């Protein structure tokens, strides 16, 4: 048995050859007669380079040092290095090693009971995560079998040894080539960033959007750092709840320049990059809920899903593999379709906006409203997360090659769901996209999102009485909120989702009860007591998501109840008085807490500072007469729709950047003085 062991990164390349007796100094090939080990060939690790690419006869040695053996085997070994592309999305080059073992022939094999037997040879790849064994055909009744069969094994993620295979020190684990980027943010006091921060936050309101400070930053940094400069902009706007109008505006600008409906949002642009960054920030928990359980199963069960006949291993059953793949794809797709209540509200808002913009741009195409959303939710979100779960913190380590291949096949299937052809044929996919756009009123198929037993206060009661609270079964679908006397019974009251104006917590002092929340709608508020605080938060989150696109949602609310002729919270006697407290922000608090606005603004300043020459060229292009005459040759590298407005923004940016640089210079002068820190 020829054993190859692929070791972790950081160890030698050639120690992947190891002796069957758990050393890493030799490689072995064992020959069997029927089920009896005949002998082995052992080659020292440091001698492997002598035989690479050459045919040699090797004397068979005993498998057991105390046994006897006779005969020899003729074999050839090669070790080739390839550079391949792993998958169509990730596009990461990996060092891939192919080990070739050619079993040519054997001579002088022993007789068993005086007769020739049926010999064959096996070659096995043994690794920490997988094993791969191949064997030659059986040769009938001979002591000198002619095999002439070649086997190859692919081994990835390995480092080359120093000295091209020469013997190294025992504690020398090889070398790793790295490219390190170090970024230092010298964050000033918050007041120093006020002017630049306000200028960036004003971006969504600038008309046209191409004249905004945020868009200008993306324009001037595109050639140097791509669209990486947009990440701090996205985070800053996200923290201040200004991201949605900005994304809507840049998406509308891109659609103006899109000529074919089937190419909508398929390229790498300022709009697609900003939306990608948004999904990665706010969609982490969504991916964890949706994909992590299925991915854990895929990693732990390690079922083979290869369906390409060229890549099938010996003994693989393509029908079984196909069933395995179909099972995984079904679980992933089912998990996605049933996760509508977990989709972050901001993502729903953005998708809804994209859908409306696409329909307006291509009114004659009935499918473009779906492809506008699918290009992000399938191609840029779920498919990428399945292919590279470790980059989304769904798994702690890279998958081994076989699991990576399974993930690639699943990812390609998810990509196909977002394709033009799938959207035109697959009704379920279109329905799924409607849910993601949070427009449940247009989705005819009703599905239950959440239901629990609660205590509900009778609506319209003016007095505080314990008997006013009754046990009810509360149920919310994508279309309506209803409560029932018992589960499965007819609804006692139905509130259409489209009529919900707000969902907020209720102060404990209102009814001397904990875990209360209120559903504010077109009639009397519905007061509900959940079983615990976790269920309370779940109800508020679910109801807020399904209703957040409703027109007329409130901006303020009363945190207590109207009892005894006045509001308990503000003592106002008029029941129709507007709320005394702002409604809860839609952005999750933990995301806001993770964003340091001063640091993000400092990064924006750094990107502007490193591209001041490009900013000056853009200013010159705006000031040039060629722009006003409609001759765009001199400024083709920039998006200038309104030269005057863009020029005004750039001049304001220049003043703000100079002022902020002066703050940095003064800080540097202070820290250079003796005794200062």
Concise synopsis of the structure shown:
With 677 residues, the chain is α+β, with helices and mostly antiparallel strands. The chain has 19 helices and 20 strands.
Tell me what you see in this structure.
The chain is of the alpha+beta class. 37% of the residues lie in helices and 20% in strands. It has a 7-stranded antiparallel beta sheet with strand order 13-12-11-10-16-15-14, with helices on one face. The longest helix is centred in the C-terminal third of the chain and has 30 residues, at 643-672. Residues 1-36, 83-95, 158-163, 438-445 and 672-677 have low confidence and may be disordered.
SSE blueprint and pairings:
Blueprint: E1 2-4, E2 26-33, E3 36-44, H1 48-51, E4 55-59, E5 72-86, E6 92-107, E7 119-126, E8 131-135, E9 146-156, H2 194-201, H3 213-225, H4 230-239, H5 243-256, H6 270-282, H7 284-301, H8 318-337, H9 345-361, H10 368-387, H11 401-417, H12 420-425, H13 427-436, E10 448-457, E11 469-477, E12 480-484, E13 491-496, E14 500-505, E15 516-521, E16 526-529, H14 533-547, E17 556-557, E18 562-563, E19 566-567, E20 581-582, H15 589-593, H16 597-610, H17 612-623, H18 625-628, H19 643-672
Helix pairs in contact: 3-17, 4-6, 4-16, 5-6, 5-9, 7-8, 8-11, 9-10, 10-11, 17-19
């Amino acid at each position: 048995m020829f054993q190859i062991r692929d070791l972790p990164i950081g160890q030698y390349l050639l120690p992947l050859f190891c002796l069957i007796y758990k050393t890493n100094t030799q490689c072995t090939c064992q020959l069997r007669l029927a089920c009896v080990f005949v002998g082995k060939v052992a080659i020292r690790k440091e001698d492997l380079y002598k035989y690479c690419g050459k045919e040699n006869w090797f004397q068979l040695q005993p498998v057991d040092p105390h046994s006897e053996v006779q005969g020899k085997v003729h074999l050839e070994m090669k070790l080739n290095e390839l550079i391949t592309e792993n998958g169509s999305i990730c596009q990461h080059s990996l060092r891939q090693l192919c080990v070739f073992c050619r079993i040519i022939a054997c001579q002088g094999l022993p007789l068993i009971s005086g007769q020739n037997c049926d010999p064959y040879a096996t070659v096995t790849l043994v690794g920490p995560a997988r094993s791969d064994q191949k064997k030659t055909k059986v040769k009938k009744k001979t002591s000198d079998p002619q095999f002439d069969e070649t086997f190859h094994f692919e081994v990835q993620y390995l480092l080359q040894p120093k000295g091209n295979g020469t013997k190294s020190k025992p504690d020398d684990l090889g070398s790793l080539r790295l490219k390190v980027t170090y970024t230092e943010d010298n964050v000033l006091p918050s007041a120093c960033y006020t002017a630049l921060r306000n200028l960036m936050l004003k971006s969504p309101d600038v008309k046209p959007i191409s004249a905004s400070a945020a868009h200008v930053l993306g324009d001037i940094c595109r050639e140097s750092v791509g669209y990486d400069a947009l990440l701090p902009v996205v985070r800053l706007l996200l923290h201040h709840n200004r991201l949605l109008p900005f994304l809507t505006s840049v998406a509308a600008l891109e659609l103006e320049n899109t000529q074919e409906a089937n190419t909508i949002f398929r390229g790498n642009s300022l709009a697609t990059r900003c939306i990608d960054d948004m999904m990665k920030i706010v969609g982490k928990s969504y991916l964890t809920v949706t994909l992590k359980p299925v991915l854990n199963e895929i990693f732990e069960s390690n079922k083979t899903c290869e369906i390409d006949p060229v890549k099938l291993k010996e003994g693989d059953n393509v029908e079984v593999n196909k069933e395995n793949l179909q099972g995984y794809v079904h679980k992933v797709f089912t998990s996605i379709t049933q996760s509508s209540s977990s989709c972050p509200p901001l993502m729903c808002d953005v998708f809804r906006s994209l859908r409306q913009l696409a329909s307006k741009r291509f009114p004659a195409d009935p499918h473009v409203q779906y492809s506008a959303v699918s290009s992000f939710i399938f191609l840029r979100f779920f498919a990428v997360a399945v292919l590279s779960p470790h980059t989304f913190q769904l798994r702690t380590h890279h998958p081994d090659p076989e699991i990576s291949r399974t993930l690639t096949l699943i990812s390609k299937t998810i990509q196909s769901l977002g394709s033009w052809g799938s959207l035109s044929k697959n009704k379920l996919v279109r329905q799924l996209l409607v849910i993601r756009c949070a427009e449940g009123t247009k989705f005819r198929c009703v599905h239950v999102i959440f239901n629990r037993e609660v205590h509900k206060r009778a609506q319209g009661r003016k007095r505080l009485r314990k008997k006013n609270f009754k046990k009810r079964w509360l149920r919310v679908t994508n279309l309506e909120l209803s409560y029932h006397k018992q589960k499965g019974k007819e609804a006692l009251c139905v509130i259409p989702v489209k009529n919900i104006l707000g969902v907020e917590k209720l102060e404990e002092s209102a009814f001397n009860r904990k875990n209360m929340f209120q559903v504010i709608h077109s009639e009397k508020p519905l007061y509900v007591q959940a079983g615990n605080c976790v269920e309370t938060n779940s109800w508020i989150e679910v109801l807020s998501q399904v209703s957040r696109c409703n027109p007329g949602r409130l901006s303020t609310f009363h945190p207590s109840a109207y009892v005894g002729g006045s509001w308990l919270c503000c003592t106002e006697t008029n029941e129709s008085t507007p709320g005394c407290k702002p409604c809860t922000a839609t952005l999750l608090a933990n995301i806001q807490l993770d964003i340091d606005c001063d640091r993000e603004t400092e990064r924006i300043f750094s990107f502007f500072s490193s591209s001041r020459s490009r900013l000056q060229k853009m200013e010159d292009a705006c000031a040039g007469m060629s722009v006003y005459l409609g001759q765009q040759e001199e400024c083709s590298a920039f998006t200038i729709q309104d030269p005057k407005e863009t020029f005004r923004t750039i001049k304001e940016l220049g003043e703000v950047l100079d002022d902020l640089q002066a703050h940095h210079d003064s800080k540097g002068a202070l820290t250079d003085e003796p005794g200062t820190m």
